[in-house]
Every structure is written in structure tokens, then in C-alpha cells.
Amino acid sequence: MPRYLLDTDICSYIIKRKSPDLLSKLRTGLLNEELAISAITRGELLYGIAILPEATSLHLAVRAFLAYIPCLEWPVEAAEHYASLRASQKFTGNPVGYMDTLIACHALAENLILYPSPLKNPKNNRQ
Which residues pair with 35 in a beta bridge? Predict the structure, then answer.
């Protein structure tokens, strides 16, 4: 059973092999069956390669990554979390990207720890 849900940014970072330490943690996490991605993350990664048809090496890397990482369906329970979290974001004036919020709600519904990118800047994450 997975313990961690990887967000799209960290997956992209892994796919582009930007950190040997992170790749090592990924291998360990996969061997221990601790990692998964949301179907939403899968969709975002596939969208990324769909808009870059000429990036053949990226296509291969994304497809290889998706072949090995477990992908969880977005559960109905996540919708309840999404509604209250989006409302809270709106009322507090602290919006987060829609997809990031959906992925976070997936983690909440599955009782998983969300593993976001260490490079993410919340100020640049508004939609």
C-alpha cells in the first residue's frame, strides 16, 4: 500500500533526472511499494508530452516512468475534500492551482502523504 503520493512537479523533476539522490529515493520507494501518483498527475504528464510531439526523448522518459509508477484512480471522497478546500482558498484569498488542489485532495482522501516538489513556489502557483 502506498504511503506517498507524488505531485506532477516532483514527477517531472524525476523524469528529467535532475537529482541522483531523488532517483535513488524513487527506486527505494518503488521497491518498498510506498509511492504512487494520482490519475490527475498521469493526465498532466501525458498532456505535457502531447503538446511537445517533437520531444521524442521526453516521450520515452515519461512513458517509462508511467510504466513503473503505480497510478491511483481519483476517488469520490476526494470531491468532498476538494469542495471544502477550494472554498477555503477562495475565502482566504490564498488560491492554489486547480490541479495541485485536486492532487492534494486525492492524497487527503487516500490518507497519503503528498510529496511535492522542493522547488515549488506558492506565489507562482496561482490559476
Answer: 4
The model's pTM is: 0.85
Query: Which whole number is the average pLDDT over 33-60?
Result: 96
Q: Which string of DSSP letters, residue by residue, matches 26-42?
A: HHHHHHTT-EEEEHHHH
By the 8 A CB rule, do 35 and 29 touch?
yes
pLDDT tens readout for residues 66-112:
999 999 999 999 999 999 999 999 999 988 889 999 999 999 999 99
As separate numbers, helices (DSSP H) first and strands (DSSP E) second, the chain gives 6, 4
How far apart (Å, rounded) are the C-alpha atoms in residues 32 and 12?
A: 21
CB 20 within 8 Å of CB 12: no
- Going from the N-terminus, what domains does the chain have, and what CATH number goes with each? 4-114 (3.40.50.1010)
Residue 121, pLDDT above cutoff 70: no
Q: Is 116 exposed, middle or buried (0-12, 13-18, 19+ CB in 10 A)?
A: middle
Task: Say if CB 8 and CB 103 are below 8 A apart.
Answer: yes
Q: 75 phi and psi, to 5 degrees?
A: -80, 155
